[in-house]
Amino acid sequence: MLSNYQSFEYVPSVFTLEDFHSLRSIGNINKYKKRETILLPESPYRYIYMLCQGVVKVYRLSKRGKEKIVRLLKPYDIFGEYALLGEGISYESVEAMEDCEILMINRADFKQALIKQPDFFLKFTQMLLTRNIDLENHLAELVFRDVSLRAIRNLVELAKKYGLSRNGGILLDIKITQYELGNLIGATRETTSTVLNQFKKDGLIDFNGRKIIITNIEKMYQLLRKEEEAAKQSAARKR
């Protein structure tokens, strides 16, 4: 699970500006304000969406109205892919975390783009597989990892998506509340606040307004690798 944690590296979307240009002629761009809803549960799936600018969150709501973030998306990420399965309904909500521009593409036109552009089809397949792996890892973490390690892993992943080098640290260039971060790691806002404050005391992070600065990502890697090695040794003893 931690093979990607050997050293920090910004990870862009699997899709690029060139992919956006290839789809631009078959879609329309809509603008959304911060906190504006893009998709609601039970909305019909008719379009595939590519985020052009901004950050959005994909989440689900429990019957009691509790929110669970499924993923955060960055520019050129695609969502709404379930539309390719037919005219079903969405079980997910999508909301703009900051002002966004989104390219909307009709399902039939998107299918033709996949057929006519083999390289784009491969990227799309890679995206689906990566999301499935991320979901499996997330479910395993909720069961087997304590909240501090879940928080570290999610901070590392956020750094890969939104990290900017700043004075020897990594600024997470995304305004994410403690509630939203807790949602990602499967913890209450109060627990998340306690964990983050402890990380600051330990010299792992600092704060810049509502943004987080990772000040010692190598230490985070070490903690994750140590936990992985302990899990391997425990598994070996049970054989």
Describe what this molecule looks like in 3D.
The chain is of the alpha+beta class. The chain folds into two domains: 17-137, Jelly Rolls; 146-237, Winged helix-like DNA-binding domain superfamily/Winged helix DNA-binding domain (Arc Repressor Mutant, subunit A, Orthogonal Bundle). Helices cover 43% and strands 24% of the residues. The chain is built from seven helices and twelve strands. It has helices at 17-24, 107-116, 118-144, 147-162, 178-185, 189-201, 217-237; strands at 27-32, 37-39, 47-53, 56-61, 67-73, 78-79, 93-96, 100-106, 163-166, 169-172, 205-208, 211-214. The chain has a four-stranded antiparallel β-sheet. A hairpin with a 2-residue loop joins strand 11 and strand 12. Helix 4 packs across helix 5, helix 4 (147-162) crosses helix 7 (217-237) and helix 5 crosses helix 6 (189-201). The longest helix is centred in the middle third of the chain and has 27 residues, at 118-144. The radius of gyration is 19 Å and the shape is globular. The two termini are 20 Å apart. The model is unreliable at 1-10 (pLDDT under 50).
